[in-house]
Amino acid sequence: MQEILLDEFLKATIKEDLGRGDLFARILKEDKEVKSKIIAKEDGVFSGEIYIKRMCELYCIEAEFLVFDKEEFQKGTTLLNLRGKRSTLLSLERSILNILAHSSGIATLTRRFVKKLQNTDCVLLDTRKTRPLLRVFEKYSTKNGGARNHRLGLDDCLMLKDTHIKGEQSLEDFIKEAREKIPFGVKIEVECETLEQARAVLTAKGDILMCDNMPLELIKEVVDLRDKISPSTLIEVSGNVELENIANYAIKGVNAISSGYIIHHATWIDLSMKML
């Protein structure tokens, strides 16, 4: 099933660029087998291996990877070598570079965030702030950077945000009722902005309590309250988390820090294909 989804993504990507056919193929006198290489023009973390490996299988290109998913590389590094028909390599050049540059850009920024959390008990989580139809691809990229995937969609974890709980008389009762209606084993996460909300979530034994845009001192109070009322509840910190301040939130008792920044602020890695 996963391979089918991957194939559909790759074929749609290539179709978008090829349109009715690469015009270069019309003027090519002889379609010889040639070699090329992908070179990094800046430092980064490699991501996109499974996508390019499958693309090469689909279009009869031999690929020799010299750098693999999750590995760091430096400017000037040859990331992979390719061998195939000249027309095929040139038709796929931009699609290959776009996938690698986009994915590696996200993995590279994510790795910088992860390094800020070294020697702490916190893990970095991604979010649902992804580009339309690119969620699987972009979350794959954050994972290669060292983040943990969190909530692929609305069906794998019930998150109650301020918009969900607005108008509810009792947050504690609302959580308990939700527990009876969702599938067994599905986690309930609740976004909290105040200590009162946090107390209600903890009393109802919510699985994950998100401290949303809370000042550090209030987060510490929530952690202390969690330890007293519901030690099994996980604490997640979220809201305006950036590279410069993420380490401030990695205090004892906070289990995870989530950030959409690692995706929507990532810039592409500069890569180039050279014919040999």
SSE arrangement:
Layout: H1 2-18, H2 24-27, E1 33-40, E2 44-45, H3 49-58, E3 62-65, E4 72-73, E5 78-85, H4 86-116, E6 123-125, H5 135-145, E7 158-160, H6 162-165, H7 171-181, E8 188-192, H8 195-203, E9 208-212, H9 216-229, E10 234-238, E11 256-258, H10 261-264, E12 271-275
Parallel strand pairs: 6-11, 7-8, 8-9, 9-10, 10-11
Antiparallel strand pairs: 1-5, 1-12, 2-4, 3-5
Helix pairs in contact: 1-3, 1-4, 4-5, 8-9
Domain Quinolinate phosphoribosyl transferase N-terminal: 24-104
GO molecular function, one term: nicotinate-nucleotide diphosphorylase (carboxylating) activity
Pathway: Cofactor biosynthesis; NAD(+) biosynthesis; nicotinate D-ribonucleotide from quinolinate: step 1/1
Provide a compact summary of the structure.
The protein is α/β, with parallel strands linked by helices and 276 residues long. The chain has helices spanning 2-18, 24-27, 49-58, 86-116, 135-145, 162-165, 171-181, 195-203, 216-229, 261-264; strands at residues 33-40, 44-45, 62-65, 72-73, 78-85, 123-125, 158-160, 188-192, 208-212, 234-238, 256-258, 271-275. Helix 1 (2-18) packs across helix 3.
CATH class of the largest domain: Alpha Beta
Domains, number: 2
CATH fold group of the largest domain: TIM Barrel
**Count of runs of 4 or more consecutive helical residues:** 10
**Strand line-up of the largest beta sheet:** 6-11-10-9-8-7
Give an overview of the whole structure.
- It comes from Helicobacter valdiviensis.
- Pathway: Cofactor biosynthesis; NAD(+) biosynthesis; nicotinate D-ribonucleotide from quinolinate: step 1/1.
- It is an enzyme of class 2 (transferase).
- With 276 residues, the protein is α/β, with parallel strands linked by helices.
- It has two domains: 121 residues, Quinolinate phosphoribosyl transferase, N-terminal domain (Aldehyde Oxidoreductase, domain 3), CATH 3.90.1170.20; 149 residues, Aldolase class I (TIM Barrel, Alpha-Beta Barrel), CATH 3.20.20.
- It has ten helices and twelve strands.
- The strands form three sheets. It has a six-stranded parallel sheet with strand order 6-11-10-9-8-7. Strands 3-5-1-12 form a four-stranded antiparallel sheet, with helices on one face. Strands 2-4 form a two-stranded antiparallel sheet.
- Helix 1 packs across helix 3, helix 4 packs across helix 5 and helix 8 packs parallel to helix 9.
